[in-house]
Amino acid sequence: MKKQIFHRPERCLFCLSCELACAATQKKARREELPAWPRLKAGHLCSHCQDAPCVRGCTSGAMHFDERGYVISDSEKCVGCWMCIALCPQGAVIPRPDGERKVWKCDGCQDRGTIPACTAACPTGALVWSESPWEI
Q: What is the largest CA-CA distance in the chain?
């Protein structure tokens, strides 16, 4: 099984440390002129579904699985139909905050190569990086 982010809502204080860590990490990784906005929204985590509705519904191939089995969005291929936003059962695919008609979603901090920034920053252990929800 692949590791993913699990949420324990009973531990969440809505301090938004996860969102701040995500925004800072994404800003560093992208080196773009975009504002520092998180790909993660507290309570809206991407499950990187094995049979992902967002991937199945993507007409351009922008939403796809990477070699690790995580659902990734390629903004170069995105045509802005937002079908993936409509199909995501977790609400984890969101419009880009810069107004460009593209989507944004968690990429599992693929550039970090370690524990995702949001889980590392969570002070209460509400976010856990694990292979199974039963291990948390």
A: 40
Q: Answer for the pair 93, 85: CB distance below 8 angstroms, yes or no.
A: yes
Alpha carbons 44 and 47: distance in angstroms, whole number? 9
DSSP state of 46: -
pLDDT in the model for residue 42: 57
Cα-Cα-Cα-Cα torsion 118, 94, 46, 112, nearest 10 degrees, comes to -40
Beta-carbon contacts of 133 under 8 Å, excluding residues fewer than 6 positions away, are 6
Q: What global pTM score does this model have?
A: 0.74
Q: Does domain 1-45+111-136 have CATH number 3.20.20.70?
A: no
Tell whether the model's pLDDT for residue 120 goes beyond 60.
Answer: yes
Q: Containing H/E element for 128?
A: strand 127-130
Q: Name the residue with tokens 């699990």.
A: 6
Domain 48-105's class?
Answer: alpha beta
pLDDT average, residue stretch 40-52 = 75
List the domain boundaries for the chain: 1-45+111-136, 48-105
